[in-house]
Amino acid sequence: MCRTVQLDDEEYEPVEEISIGEFARRSRLSVKALRLYDKRRVLVPARVDDVSGYRYYDAAQLEDARLVAMLRQLDLSLAAIRKLVACDPVDAAGQIAAHWRKVESVHDARRELADYLVNRLSGKSYVMYEVATREIPERSVLCLKRHVDEKGAWALGKEFIAIMRERPLPKMEGREGAAFSIFWGEVSADSDGPVEWCKPVPEADAKALASHYPELTLRTEPAHREAYVAIPNDALPSGPGGNPSVHWQLAGEALRAWAEEGGINPETLTLKPEDLGMRITYFVSEPVTETSVPYCDFAAPFA
User: Fold this and answer.
1) What is the pLDDT of residue 187?
2) Kind and range of the H or E element at 73?
3) Which of 15, 39, 158, 196 has CB atoms 3.0–4.6 Å from 182's, for a disulfide?
4) Model confidence over 153-167: pLDDT tens digits?
5) Beta strand pairing status for 139-146 and 132-136?
6) What angle do CA 183, 189, 195 make, to 5 degrees?
C-alpha cells in the first residue's frame, strides 16, 4: 500500500505504507510491542486511520524499529530509548557507550560480591576493602531527612545539593566538615530508608545559620569514631534508579569482618552503628570546580 507525500507545490512522492501486522512481521517486533512503543512515543506510526484506528508505518521506519529492538537488549528504559532515537547518531553512540560502562561496572561489582559469597560459604578468607578509622568530634549539623525509595533517594540528594549551592554554608576544613548522607535503613523497591543528608556547621553560628534554612533540621551529633572504606566513584548512582547497593554490601561486610577481627563487641559499645547511622562522606579536594570528583567513603560510626 502506498500514499503520497507532497514535497512542494507541484511535486509528490509515493511512500510505502505498511499495516501494523506487516510492520511487525518485517521488524520482528510483536504487535503488542508496537502498540506499547506508540503509547510511550518511542516509535510512533506514520498514520493512524481516523475511522478504524488502524496504525500504519512508513517502510523507512523499519530501521528505527530494529534500532529500538537492539537497544532494548541493552536493558535501556523506553524513556532512554525515546531520547536516543530522536538525537544525533554521534550523540547517541556516546550515550550508549556511557550506559554500557555503567552496566560493566555493576557487573564487575556483582562478580566481586559473588566471589566474596563463594569464599565465605567455603570457609575461606577474602580481602574486600582496606579499613581505616578516624575520630569525629561532636558537631552541629543541618539535615534533610525523608523516607524515600531508590529514585526518591536520588531526588533528595539533588534537592539538598541545590540548597547548598543556592545558599552556601560556611566551609569547614577536613573530613569532619564534609557533607555526608546517612542511610538509616535499606533503600530499595521494597524499603524506604529513611535517608538523611547532613552538612556540619560551626557550633558558634549553628542556631543563627539554621534560621536561614527552615527546610533543614539542626541537631548535634555526638563525638564518635568511624571505621571506613574508600569506595569507587562508579559505585555511586549517577541517576534515578542507579543501584550502588552491591558495593555498599561489600563495604559493609568488610567493616563487619574488621570489627570481628579486632574483637569489637557491639554489645559493649556506648553508641552502635545503628544509633548514628551507616553513612557516606563526600569530600572534594581543593580547588573545587564544576568537574571535581568527590572522594567518597562508606563508614560505620561507633563509640
Assistant:
1) 80
2) none
3) 196
4) 889 999 999 999 999
5) unpaired
6) 20
Residue 91 φ then ψ, to 5°: -65, -40
Least confident range of 60-64, 184-188, 281-285? 281-285
Is the pLDDT confidence value at 22 over 50? yes
Nearest to 132 by CA among 303, 253, 297: 297
- C-beta of residue 158 within 8 angstroms of C-beta of residue 240: no
* DSSP letter, residue 214: T
Contact present, 68 and 40 (Cβ < 8 Å): no
Alpha-carbon distance of 179 to 169, in angstroms, equals 11
Beta bridge partner(s), residue 297: 230, 281
DSSP secondary structure code for residue 235 in this structure = G
Chain-centre distance for alpha carbon 65 = 28
| 188 vs 243: CA distance, rounded Å | 9
Q: How many CB atoms sit inside 10 A of residue 216's CB?
A: 23
| Residue 187, helix vs strand vs coil | strand
Measured on CA atoms in the order 170, 300, 279, 295, is the torsion positive or negative? positive
For 106, 132, 220, 248, 296, the CA distances from 299, given in Å and listed in that order, are: 21, 9, 19, 10, 10
